[in-house]
Write a structure and sequence with these properties.
Radius of gyration of chain A: 15 Å
Distance between the termini of chain B: 59 Å
Number of helices of chain B: 17
CATH class of the largest domain in chain A: Alpha Beta
Shape of chain A: elongated
CATH topology of the largest domain in chain B: Aldehyde Oxidoreductase, domain 4
CATH class of the largest domain in chain B: Alpha Beta
Oligomer: heterodimer
Strand order of the largest sheet of chain A: 2-1-5-3-4
Radius of gyration of chain B: 27 Å
CATH architecture of the largest domain in chain B: 2-Layer Sandwich
Number of domains of chain A: 2
CATH superfamily of the largest domain in chain B: Aldehyde oxidase/xanthine dehydrogenase, molybdopterin binding domain
Low-confidence stretches of chain B: 1-21, 23-50
Mean pLDDT of chain B: 90
Number of strands of chain B: 27
Number of strands of chain A: 5
Largest sheet of chain A: 5 strands, mixed
Structural class of chain A: alpha+beta
Low-confidence stretches of chain A: none
CATH topology of the largest domain in chain A: Ubiquitin-like (UB roll)
CATH architecture of the largest domain in chain A: Roll
Strand content of chain A: 5-15%
Distance between the termini of chain A: 51 Å
Strand order of the largest sheet of chain B: 10-11-8-18-15-16-17
Largest interface: A-B, 63 and 63 residues
Bound molecules: FE2/S2 (inorganic) cluster
Number of domains of chain B: 3
CATH superfamily of the largest domain in chain A: Beta-grasp domain
Largest sheet of chain B: 7 strands, mixed
């Protein structure tokens, strides 16, 4: 098996894996970063969301060969940024998670949204978050939490 | 009786284990059952489900035997204990009770709070009495002069106080109160009924919450499984040369079907999940499709219609008075409603980790029924249940699916074959194509309306398969969960019966169980009756609910908050539905729009909800929001179809669920009272679909009697009736 080097949450890792291994399974199985979740494997649910070089990415759709050489950020390091902490606190304040399984992906998607659109409207949130499925349908609280983290108050 | 069963011996034993801590436990089959919801049989033989420990540092640890799957039970259960204990909530910790047959670990049917409420209160009150007793003895004052609050016992007259932590060791030596300990007057509650942040949420915003799929144990290998796509088929041959050539593959294992539980399979064990999945896809397998090769839901549905008049084979499930035909001045309303198979599609796909060793079996499972796994695995392996340990993780959704045991039996089969721990992870495709589904079927409803339009005779015939008949053949006779529901209205004569049809499709409980199809059929049809009678649907229901003040209140509350009767923009409609879910009363008003493309859009849902005494009201609101999203997914998209014996849908691409941009506004109005608590997680589901259908009728005049609601059913020009 070939080996690949990538940066995950600031640390450099060299992993041995088949070139077509999705980043998702490398993170979960080889690096024991299980906060990133498997939901569909086909790019349809965004449970596996991470950031690659600061941008939103579905880790089930990135092979390790493609991810090599890039900076990957996962839910485990969300709290290292001010924006990440603000989002996590908003998630707690709004009591967003139910089963919680989708929430790593929701938070990573929300962080990417707020990075590009610091004061999103409801329409921005719809656009930015509708790739993320929540089977518990916590959508209303996710919306509120994003507004809260953005300092939008009760804004639309 | 109750506390007598907290045996002295057990108590002392428990205390010895925990050193200075006060530990209070209840044993199996404690007759506390008698105290559950008076007049109503205990759902599954009440087994008190907690141990409460007070540590010297004042930490109170409460064990919960109920699985946390998003419904907030990990917070609600400790709240009940802590209320009567007068604990300092900031020092309460929750931990998982062991799966050892001594707790009722079954989590489902919206039963946890209902069945645990009184016993948990007694548990807290008993511990409090012993702490007070210890303080009173120490101070030489009457216990009756001592008060408690926030984990401290106080004797005001002598200005003395002691924390529970300080008193724990002495309390352990106090006699266990012989009878029931007096409970608080609910009007004095300080924790129960207050919105309380959930204890599981912090771990769910930073990736640390451990779900079943996150299990990692030393020396573990990963499994992926090819399953016979046709229900009831078998393996003919497998060529695994290509699979074995995949780097990291350890082993290929053939597994026979387990009746009513698992299909014929070929599994690959490998170094990591991806290698296992990739090798699984490289297997060259020939299946024998078997006896169901020609089964299709389309043909099955046609068969249901053919048998709708099969009176000779209709088993009566409930009746009252005598149903009759319309007399002079009366009229008959009749309609047939259809409902499809539904998958659960929990966000966390099925998975399980097992380690079968010579000295015992260890299982890590995201399970709603760990004791079923324990006994099921013991039976499967022919070992004593005591040798099977089940660790319950967080559940990435349950919705009934995870009260099955198939995934655990499978992990055990694989670990046994591998001789080491195995984690099996299902793909989403397996999860959707090898679910245990919500039944399909039809219901024919027939009502006789008298001259005033009132329902005087009500018949509801179900034609289709039954969950029980599938899961427990022969055990329940006619008493199918899937039978029609008793109308919650004052109707003098009714008859509910069922023509049971065999099906090869695996069936199981699905959030709200049969109430999903029953609520839909009953409340949409009742709307037809109201319109046939020329009456307002809300007034129509109210007239038949007279004598049930709680139901009347819920119906009125929803109607009033929604602005029932006020005008809506063109193209929009409003629909109403009411449901009595095993004592939880729910009314919903749905506002929906039907644009020319037929893609119905729900704008607003107003829900009035009476579940008796609420434990954590914010959780109740969250569960209603969730129920609406869940029910909307089913109403708009939910349909599993079977063709040539195999499920046709495969992933979220073709088994769609609602997303952020489709989620309506949900306004929840809770009825605040101290009635005995009833369920919360499921009751918001049944009224949604009928309220939506009634809103579509209001908007368009189209009376849809089939789910899901497809755009072609509503496109401009589509037939309306
Ligand atoms: S698991 Fe990657 S999008 Fe669903
Ligand atoms: S919280 Fe359960 S899937 Fe989102």
């Amino acid at each position: 098996m070939p080996s690949f080097t990538l940066t995950v949450n600031g640390a450099t890792h060299t992993v041995t894996a088949e070139a077509d291994s999705p980043l998702l399974w490398v993170l979960r199985d080889k690096l024991a970063l299980t906060g990133t979740k498997f939901g569909c494997g086909v790019g349809a649910c965004s449970a596996c969301s991470v950031h690659i070089d600061g941008d939103f990415a579905r880790s089930c759709q990135w092979s390790i060969a493609d991810a090599a050489g890039h900076h990957v950020t996962t839910i485990e390091s969300l709290e290292t940024t001010e924006l990440g902490r603000r989002l996590q606190q908003a998630w707690i304040d709004e009591q967003v998670p139910q089963c919680g399984y989708c929430q790593s992906g929701q938070l990573m998607a929300a962080a990417a949204l707020l990075k590009d659109t610091p004061r999103p409207t409801d329409a921005d949130i719809d656009n930015g978050m509708s790739d993320n499925i929540c089977r518990c349908a916590t959508y209303l609280r996710i919306r509120k939490a994003i507004h809260r983290a953005a300092g939008n108050g009760e804004a639309k | 009786m109750s506390n007598k069963n907290i045996s002295r011996r057990q108590f002392v034993t428990a205390s010895a284990v925990s050193g200075a801590a006060l530990m209070l436990g209840f044993s199996t089959l404690d007759a506390l059952a008698a105290k559950v919801a008076p007049g109503r049989p205990a759902p599954d033989g009440w087994t008190p489900n907690l141990w409460l420990t007070v540590d010297p540092d004042g930490t109170v640890t409460i064990l919960s035997a109920k699985s946390e799957m998003g419904q907030g039970v990990w917070t609600a259960m400790p709240m009940i204990v802590a209320e009567e204990l007068d604990a300092d909530w900031s020092k309460v910790r929750v931990a998982r009770a062991p799966t050892n047959g001594k707790y009722n670990t079954s989590t489902g049917g919206s039963q946890s709070t209902r069945s645990s409420y009184m016993p948990l209160r007694q548990a807290g009150a008993t511990a409090r009495a012993m702490l007070v007793g210890a303080a009173a003895a120490q101070w030489g004052v009457p216990a009756s002069q001592c008060t408690t609050a926030a984990g401290v016992v106080t004797h005001a007259a002598s200005k003395r106080s002691a924390t529970y932590g300080e008193l724990a060791a002495k309390a352990a030596a106090q006699p266990v109160p012989a009878g029931d300990v007096p409970l608080k007057d609910p009007s004095t509650f300080t924790l129960i009924g207050r919105a309380t942040p959930r204890l599981d949420i912090p771990a769910k915003v930073n990736g640390t919450a451990q779900f079943g799929i996150d299990t990692r144990v030393p020396n573990m290998v990963y499994a992926s499984v090819a399953r016979c796509p046709v229900f009831g088929g078998s393996l003919v041959r497998v060529d695994d040369a290509k699979a074995r050539a995949v780097a990291g593959v350890h082993q290929v294992v053939k597994l026979d079907a387990v009746e009513r539980l698992l299909p014929a399979r070929v599994a690959v064990l490998a170094e990591d999940t991806w290698a296992a999945m990739k090798a699984r896809d490289a297997l060259d397998i020939t299946w024998n499709p078997g006896p169901n090769a020609n089964y299709s839901t389309e043909a099955a549905n046609a068969g249901y219609h053919q048998r709708v008049n099969d009176d000779a084979n209709a088993g009566v499930t409930a009746s009252k008075g005598a149903v009759r035909a319309a007399g002079a001045g009366e009229r008959t309303v009749e309609a047939i409603y259809e409902f499809p198979l539904l998958a659960h599609a929990t966000m966390e796909p099925m998975n399980c980790t097992a380690d079968v060793r010579a000295d015992g079996v260890e299982i890590w499972a995201p399970s709603q029924a760990p004791d079923s796994i324990r006994t099921g695995v013991a039976k499967y392996l022919g070992v004593a249940p005591d040798t099977v340990t089940v660790h319950v993780t967080f559940l990435g959704g349950g919705f009934g699916r995870r009260s099955q045991t198939d995934y655990a039996i499978e992990a055990v089969q694989l670990s046994k074959a591998a001789g080491r721990p195995v984690k099996v992870t299902w793909t989403r495709e397996e999860d959707i194509q090898h679910d245990f589904y919500r039944v399909d079927g039809i219901q024919r409803l027939r009502a006789v309306l008298d001259a005033q339009g009132r329902v005087v005779s009500w018949e509801d015939r179900v034609v289709g398969p039954s969950t029980e008949a599938y899961a427990f053949p022969g055990r329940f006779g006619n008493r199918h969960f899937d039978a029609a529901a008793r109308p919650p209205y004052d109707i003098a004569n009714y008859r509910l019966d069922m023509v049971l049809v065999d099906s090869p499709v695996p069936m199981w409980f699905w959030r709200a169980v049969s109430n999903t199809q029953n609520g839909y059929c009953m409340e949409a049809f009742l709307d037809e009756c109201a319109h046939a009678a020329g009456q307002d649907p809300v007034q129509y229901r109210l007239a038949m609910l007279a004598g049930n003040p709680r139901a009347v209140h819920v119906v009125q509350l929803a109607a009033q908050k929604a602005g029932w009767g006020t005008p809506l923009p063109k193209g929009q409609g409003r629909g109403f539905a009411f449901y009595d879910y095993d004592g939880t009363l729910v009314a919903q008003v749905v506002e929906a729009e039907v644009p020319p493309d037929g893609k119905v859009k729900v704008h607003r849902v107003v829900c009035a909800f009476d579940c008796g005494q609420m434990i954590n009201p914010d959780t109740v609101v969250a569960q209603v929001e969730s129920a609406v999203g869940w029910a909307l997914s089913a109403a708009r998209y939910g349909e599993i179809t079977v063709k040539n014996g195999a499920v046709q849908q495969s992933n979220f691409t073709d088994y769609q669920v609602v997303r952020m941009n489709e989620m309506p506004r949900v306004e929840v109005h809770l009825v605040d009272n101290h009635e005995p608590p009833t369920g919360v997680g499921e009751p918001g589901v049944p009224p949604f679909a009928p309220a939506l259908l009634n809103a579509i009728f209001d908007a368009t005049g189209a009376r849809l009697r089939r789910l899901p609601i497809k755009p072609e059913m509503l496109k401009a020009g589509a037939a309306t009736d």
